């Protein structure tokens, strides 16, 4: 697959050089020095000398795969793409950054002695690599700085194969703030002997002080970003550290969610109190800071690929990436998607790669990180709410949600700003709140917004505060994700229905008043889990037959470690929402499964998670999907369902895959033999008759288009339970779709571990339909092995299907 290069020039009308990734596939031998020399030699052929090649080289990828990043003009990129051994030339691009109750809600109580957490020894010995903004430490916990910054993060700084213990150390995807209690090393044994990584000192990060038996590795990668954009670290006006230290807070939060140590008596503004920890509290953390507090939080694909290259060499077991490329516009192993390419090599080396689905929901076809070897995670709420009473002057009490700590106020004036001659709501839109000429002093203000996220609430808070107001009620679309008002200003979030009731009351009386009560934490059955409004949805726009997302996990109002630079932090902790928060939940669970089943492949672990997932909330209530309108959740919202860690520990059967299965996928996606051979490292020839992408051995079946002819798909399952087992098929067909399976029974014994079966699907519909959903389940009366079925009838191809 090749793409053209847009012509660029500098101010002198000379061709402009930009960073390109020269991808050469699987490395041909294991001598890193010889691989790097070959890269310089190849580049020198194009640019004229080895000295110039050295100057233009940004990275040499030499451990997990072969290739390099270099500054090239359009003409040079075209020439180098034609050289033998070059798979493709990838333009450097930017990627975006995507607890007390959440683990208990998944059945992983710290006190239990019979769950996955206990049986896997809390993930002891497993190494989780986190690609993010680094890690952050907290002023009340850290010792005076011991600075030893000696390099740029590309291998020239001082390196230590192991860092001596310090009291506290955290991890973060955008780096780490290592003094957090979540990264205390106490109770951990020696660093695993197989670990080959390093801990690098840098700005306000000292390898000896800040790495220990918990944070066993820390690197940062910025050369690709700087070579492309040339921005000094302070050019954005944001704090940043040229080191693994986290200036953003994103990485510290995600790292503590995945592998934070046990911390008692944690709360946020007095809410959500309890004991906190990560999913695999005895797992070790390796920090790969690839995202920077620049241009709104960005990560260069050249830097991400270098981090993959080093992580494969270092010996991580799991990689957690709360990073996305945006809505996918190109094929999976594409010249612009460094995550898909790097993750392929990681998975080929036995490393599970977990990525977020993205935060572009609830629209269809917005899911990111769609390669079939990636475990892609959607976000759901948990069985917890922070309910705040809103008492009106007519003695009616309504309920919203809030994250405030102030005491209950007395009745005070209530205002809805309206301007005569304008649309009644024009001056009361939260993000453009107009209070000029209104008497807002000493009053609570009601506003409406259609925006999600912090912007509307932050803007409205500022306007109300400046006008002398004392509180804010924000009416918005129904969503469980909460955003505290800056400066702990009293604000309560409600949905449009409640907001309209408040507005009716205001218009019904001359002197409306209101009393805002502090919120209370409510957990358990009264609160049902929902797929979050923001969570990106399927179907997969690149390869519609590959179901994405794969799974959903808690990602709404997640309490974890905070950076001191986070304005919303409270005593070292903060609540955030996003698929960035859901991703480390799955990463922690993968680490526990890896500790329990060290020989399982990434595909087997992925299958176990998907086939045992819940399609009803842990409370037994139906799972809904937030959106417009709210609906019952389906596989395009949550993949297999809500993750069920304890069931995943003993799935019975798995849908396993290896590189040959991924080669099948690549052939079906029209990649040529040469590109596939270089990617895999073995000579590969696609069959003359293109294989069907429907037969990729995934734990799901998705038929994007069926007409009058039945479709037959094949799957293979591997028995990982009792050797002598008999499984029977149960089918819940999508409405109007006929589904049959042969054989209907799978008989395993000590010599038969793998069995293939065929599923025949036909439709009774005589017109186009949207996707309809069902399931295929194998059970031996002990295990329930369920995969989702998604089928769309297309008698002709229209534009504008709902999916």
UniProtKB/TrEMBL annotation:
<dbReference type="InterPro" id="IPR036852">
    <property type="entry name" value="Peptidase_S8/S53_dom_sf"/>
</dbReference>
<feature type="domain" description="Peptidase S8/S53">
    <location>
        <begin position="123"/>
        <end position="618"/>
    </location>
</feature>
<feature type="domain" description="Subtilisin-like protease fibronectin type-III">
    <location>
        <begin position="695"/>
        <end position="791"/>
    </location>
</feature>
<dbReference type="GO" id="GO:0006508">
    <property type="term" value="P:proteolysis"/>
</dbReference>
<comment type="similarity">
    <text>Belongs to the peptidase S8 family.</text>
</comment>
<dbReference type="InterPro" id="IPR023828">
    <property type="entry name" value="Peptidase_S8_Ser-AS"/>
</dbReference>
<dbReference type="InterPro" id="IPR000209">
    <property type="entry name" value="Peptidase_S8/S53_dom"/>
</dbReference>
<keyword id="KW-0732">Signal</keyword>
<dbReference type="InterPro" id="IPR037045">
    <property type="entry name" value="S8pro/Inhibitor_I9_sf"/>
</dbReference>
<dbReference type="Pfam" id="PF05922">
    <property type="entry name" value="Inhibitor_I9"/>
</dbReference>
<dbReference type="GO" id="GO:0009610">
    <property type="term" value="P:response to symbiotic fungus"/>
</dbReference>
<comment type="function">
    <text>Required for arbuscular mycorrhiza (AM) development during AM symbiosis with AM fungi (e.g. Glomeromycota intraradices).</text>
</comment>
<dbReference type="GO" id="GO:0048046">
    <property type="term" value="C:apoplast"/>
</dbReference>
<dbReference type="Pfam" id="PF00082">
    <property type="entry name" value="Peptidase_S8"/>
</dbReference>
<keyword id="KW-0052">Apoplast</keyword>
<feature type="active site" description="Charge relay system">
    <location>
        <position position="132"/>
    </location>
</feature>
<keyword id="KW-0378">Hydrolase</keyword>
<protein>
    <submittedName>
        <fullName>Subtilisin-like protease</fullName>
    </submittedName>
</protein>
<dbReference type="InterPro" id="IPR010259">
    <property type="entry name" value="S8pro/Inhibitor_I9"/>
</dbReference>
<dbReference type="InterPro" id="IPR015500">
    <property type="entry name" value="Peptidase_S8_subtilisin-rel"/>
</dbReference>
<dbReference type="InterPro" id="IPR041469">
    <property type="entry name" value="Subtilisin-like_FN3"/>
</dbReference>
<keyword id="KW-0964">Secreted</keyword>
<feature type="active site" description="Charge relay system">
    <location>
        <position position="250"/>
    </location>
</feature>
<dbReference type="GO" id="GO:0004252">
    <property type="term" value="F:serine-type endopeptidase activity"/>
</dbReference>
<keyword id="KW-0645">Protease</keyword>
<feature type="domain" description="Inhibitor I9">
    <location>
        <begin position="19"/>
        <end position="97"/>
    </location>
</feature>
<keyword id="KW-0720">Serine protease</keyword>
<dbReference type="InterPro" id="IPR034197">
    <property type="entry name" value="Peptidases_S8_3"/>
</dbReference>
<dbReference type="GO" id="GO:0009609">
    <property type="term" value="P:response to symbiotic bacterium"/>
</dbReference>
<dbReference type="Pfam" id="PF17766">
    <property type="entry name" value="fn3_6"/>
</dbReference>
<dbReference type="InterPro" id="IPR045051">
    <property type="entry name" value="SBT"/>
</dbReference>
<feature type="active site" description="Charge relay system">
    <location>
        <position position="580"/>
    </location>
</feature>
């Amino acid at each position: 697959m090749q793409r053209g290069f847009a012509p660029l020039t500098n101010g002198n009308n000379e061709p402009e050089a930009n960073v390109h990734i020269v991808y050469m596939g699987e490395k041909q031998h294991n001598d890193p020095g010889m691989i790097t020399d070959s890269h310089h030699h190849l580049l020198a052929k194009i640019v004229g000398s080895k000295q110039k090649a050295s100057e233009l080289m940004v990275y040499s990828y030499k451990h997990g795969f072969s290739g390099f990043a270099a500054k090239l003009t359009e003409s040079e990129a075209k020439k180098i793409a034609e050289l033998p051994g070059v798979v493709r030339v990838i333009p450097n691009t930017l990627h975006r950054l995507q607890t007390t109750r959440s683990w208990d809600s998944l059945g992983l109580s710290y006190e239990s002695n019979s769950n996955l957490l206990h049986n896997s020894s809390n993930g002891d010995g497993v190494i989780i690599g986190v690609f993010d903004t680094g890690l952050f430490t907290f002023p009340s916990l850290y010792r005076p700085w011991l600075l030893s910054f000696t390099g740029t993060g590309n291998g020239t700084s001082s390196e230590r194969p192991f860092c001596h213990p310090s009291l506290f150390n955290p991890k973060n995807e955008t780096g780490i703030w290592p003094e957090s209690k979540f990264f205390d090393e106490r109770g951990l044994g020696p660093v695993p002997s197989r670990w080959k990584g390093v801990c690098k000192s840098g700005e306000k990060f000292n390898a000896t002080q800040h790495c220990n038996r918990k944070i066993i590795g820390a690197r940062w990668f910025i050369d690709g970003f700087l070579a492309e954009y040339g921005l000094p670290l302070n050019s954005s006006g944001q704090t940043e550290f040229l080191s693994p230290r986290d200036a953003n807070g994103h990485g510290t939060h995600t790292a503590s969610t995945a592998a934070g140590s046990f911390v008692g008596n944690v709360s946020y503004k007095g809410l959500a109190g309890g004991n906190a920890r990560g999913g695999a509290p005895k797992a070790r953390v390796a920090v790969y800071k690839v995202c920077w507090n620049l241009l709104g939080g960005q990560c260069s694909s050249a830097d991400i690929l270098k981090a993959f290259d080093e992580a494969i060499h270092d010996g991580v077991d799991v990689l957690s990436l709360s990073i996305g490329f945006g809505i996918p516009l190109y094929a999976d192993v594409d010249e612009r998607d460094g995550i898909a390419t790097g993750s392929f090599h990681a998975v080929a080396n036995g490393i599970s790669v977990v990525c977020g689905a993205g935060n572009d929901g609830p629209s269809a076809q917005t899911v990111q990180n769609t390669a079939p070897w990636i475990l892609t995670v959607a976000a759901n709420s948990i069985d917890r709410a922070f309910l705040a009473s809103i008492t009106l002057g007519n003695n009616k009490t309504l309920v919203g949600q809030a994250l405030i700590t102030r005491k209950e106020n007395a009745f005070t004036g209530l205002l809805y700003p309206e301007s005569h001659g304008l649309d009644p709501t024009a001056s009361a839109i939260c993000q453009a709140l107009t209070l000029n000429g209104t008497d807002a002093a000493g009053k609570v203000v009601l506003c409406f917004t259609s925006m999600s996220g912090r912007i509307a609430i932050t803007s409205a808070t500022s306007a109300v505060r400046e006008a002398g107001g004392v509180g804010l009620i924000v009416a918005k679309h129904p969503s469980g994700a909460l955003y505290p008002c800056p400066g702990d200003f009293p604000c309560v979030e409600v949905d449009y229905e409640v907001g309209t009731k408040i507005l009716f009351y205001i218009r019904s009386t001359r002197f409306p008043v209101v009393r805002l009560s502090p919120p209370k934490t409510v957990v358990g059955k009264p609160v049902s889990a929902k797929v979050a409004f923001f969570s990106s949805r399927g179907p997969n726009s690149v390869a519609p037959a590959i179901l994405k997302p794969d799974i959903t996990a808690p990602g709404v109002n997640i309490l974890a470690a905070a950076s001191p630079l986070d304005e919303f932090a409270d005593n070292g902790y903060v609540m955030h929402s996003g698929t960035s928060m859901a991703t480390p939940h799955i990463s922690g669970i993968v680490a526990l499964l890896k500790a329990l089943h060290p020989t399982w492949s990434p595909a087997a672990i992925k299958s176990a998670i998907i086939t045992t997932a819940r399609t009803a909330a842990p409370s037994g209530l139906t799972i809904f999907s937030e959106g417009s309108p709210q609906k019952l959740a389906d596989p395009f919202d949550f993949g297999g369902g809500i993750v069920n860690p304890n069931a995943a520990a003993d799935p019975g059967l798995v849908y396993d895959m290896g590189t040959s299965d991924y080669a099948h996928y690549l052939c079906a996606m029209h990649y040529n033999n040469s590109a596939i051979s270089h990617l895999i490292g073995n000579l590969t020839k696609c069959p003359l008759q293109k294989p069907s992408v429907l037969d990729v051995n995934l734990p799901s079946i998705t038929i994007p288009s069926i007409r009058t002819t039945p479709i037959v798909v094949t799957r293979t399952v591997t028995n990982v339970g009792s050797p002598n087992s008999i499984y029977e098929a149960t089918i819940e067909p999508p409405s109007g779709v006929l589904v049959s399976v042969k054989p209907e029974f799978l008989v395993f014994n000590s010599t038969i571990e793998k069995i293939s079966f065929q599923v025949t699907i036909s439709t009774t519909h005589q017109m186009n339909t949207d996707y309809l959903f069902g399931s295929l389940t194998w059970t031996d009366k002990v295990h329930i092995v369920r995969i989702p079925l998604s089928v769309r009838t297309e008698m002709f191809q229209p534009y504008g299907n709902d999916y």
